[in-house]
């Protein structure tokens, strides 16, 4: 149980929002056959609902709903050539569908429902992008804040922030979830009393070879390493494999280098990004370097959130909440980072962000100012340039392109 002085995740992240009307929703649990019939009907309705053209990317937006203004998960179309965003619909997805993941086959979306009794919802994705609920399962912990799918599409991994635990849920043949078969409770704490008096699992994701899963824990100042047993559907902690971070760092999200055995960690509480070496044979992490995500000389409250690396491995990005910016790092051939640019997101509290599948655009979700803004991206240097493209949605906190399935 959380100590009295410690803030819950929801207290810390509480934000205002702007309402929108739902244009499409799916809440009834359907069989797979019924879903296929529904998808055929939706396809017949495409001319009236807005056809997906070849130059359109499908984007899903997770939100917070506890102020009553958000409709749940929003469906947005992005024009590949201009970066223009257009609201296409929404889906009722239960309370606070704040973080999303898409199955590698691109046909199922998973959303955590962040609350005291955490759950994970599964939705079938129609050809039009519309969502139909397949079912819901307990996340086996309070405040689930992260969900991912393993590289082979066999299991879902969930991080329970308030519960201080991670869980593995098997994926069934229709894409729905079975009850959790493996739950691990973290141990540890950190020096920041109101944020680190107990473990707070903040993400869990399978590494590219799908043999291990790494979990960043903000409260324990540690990145835990688990062997991912896909046959037995379980997580096994690797003793001596964890990365012990600097006290008060608060590791939050991680990104894997596309070609090197490196892991980058966005640290929420000390505004840094850490570089770790990952020994894939032993399943161990070793600290290499740490860099600030803020421009030199800036003073103020800041909490890094999301982190992504380009497909080339030459540019890495971290969002700064407080400074309200995206930090752009250039990465050398060795993976060493240099802060190259810090660009304003023209909004408040940039939470999650995403590189589009082409690598031409970066989209940032400003949670407190209710907007998603688009940057053009130089694919050689990685540098960002603001555009006039943006869309207003209530409390956007997670962005997932369908083309980024998995």
Derived from helix and strand composition plus strand pairing, the structural class reads: mainly beta
Termini Cα gap: 32 Å
Which spans of ≥5 residues are poorly predicted at pLDDT below 50? 1-5, 14-50
Shape field = globular
Sheet with most strands? 5 strands, antiparallel
Can you count the beta strands? 29
- Strand percent estimate: over 45%
Number of helices: 4
Gyration radius (Cα, Å) is 20 Å
| Average pLDDT figure | 90
| Residues in helix, % | under 10%
Provide a brief overview of the structure:
The protein has 406 residues and is mainly β. The protein contains 4 helices and 29 strands. Strands 12, 13, 14, 15 and 16 form a 5-stranded antiparallel sheet that branches. The protein has a 4-stranded antiparallel sheet with strand order 3-2-1-29, with no helix packed on it. The chain has a 4-stranded antiparallel sheet with strand order 4-5-6-7, with no helix packed on it.
């Amino acid at each position: 149980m959380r100590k009295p002085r410690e803030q819950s995740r929801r207290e810390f992240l509480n934000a205002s929002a702007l309402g929108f009307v739902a244009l499409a929703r799916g809440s009834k649990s359907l069989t797979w056959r019924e879903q296929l019939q529904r998808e055929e009907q939706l396809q017949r309705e495409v001319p009236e609902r807005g056809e997906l053209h070849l130059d359109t990317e499908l984007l899903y937006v997770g939100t917070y709903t506890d102020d009553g203004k958000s409709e749940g998960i929003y469906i947005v179309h992005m024009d590949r050539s201009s970066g223009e965003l257009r609201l296409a619909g929404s889906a009722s997805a239960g309370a606070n569908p704040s973080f999303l993941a898409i199955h590698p086959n691109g046909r199922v979306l998973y959303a955590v429902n962040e609350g005291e009794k955490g759950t994970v919802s599964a939705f079938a994705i129609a050809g039009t992008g519309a969502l139909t609920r397949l079912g819901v399962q307990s996340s086996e912990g309070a405040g689930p804040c992260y969900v991912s799918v393993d590289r082979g599409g066999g299991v879902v991994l969930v991080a329970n922030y308030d519960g201080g635990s991670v869980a593995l849920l098997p994926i069934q043949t229709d894409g729905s979830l079975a009850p959790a078969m493996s739950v691990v409770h973290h141990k540890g704490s950190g020096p920041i009393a109101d944020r680190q008096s107990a473990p707070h699992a903040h993400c869990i994701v399978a590494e590219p070879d799908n043999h291990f899963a790494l979990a960043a824990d903000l409260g324990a100042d540690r990145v835990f390493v688990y062997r991912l047993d896909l046959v037995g559907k379980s997580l096994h902690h690797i003793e001596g494999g964890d990365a012990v971070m600097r006290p008060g760092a608060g590791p939050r999200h991680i990104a894997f280098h596309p070609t090197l055995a490196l892991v980058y960690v966005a640290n929420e509480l000390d505004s840094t990004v850490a570089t770790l070496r990952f020994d894939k044979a032993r399943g161990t992490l070793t600290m290499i370097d740490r860099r600030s995500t803020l421009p030199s000389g800036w003073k103020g409250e800041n909490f890094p959130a999301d982190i992504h690396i380009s497909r080339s491995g030459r540019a890495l990005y971290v969002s700064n909440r407080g400074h309200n910016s995206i930090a752009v790092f250039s990465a050398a051939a060795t993976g060493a980072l240099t802060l190259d640019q810090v660009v304003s997101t023209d909004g408040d509290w940039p939470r999650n962000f995403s590189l589009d599948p082409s690598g031409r655009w970066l989209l940032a979700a400003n949670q407190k100012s209710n907007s998603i803004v688009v940057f053009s991206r130089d694919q050689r240097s990685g540098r960002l340039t603001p555009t006039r493209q943006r869309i207003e949605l209530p409390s956007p906190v997670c962005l997932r392109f369908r083309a980024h399935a998995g």
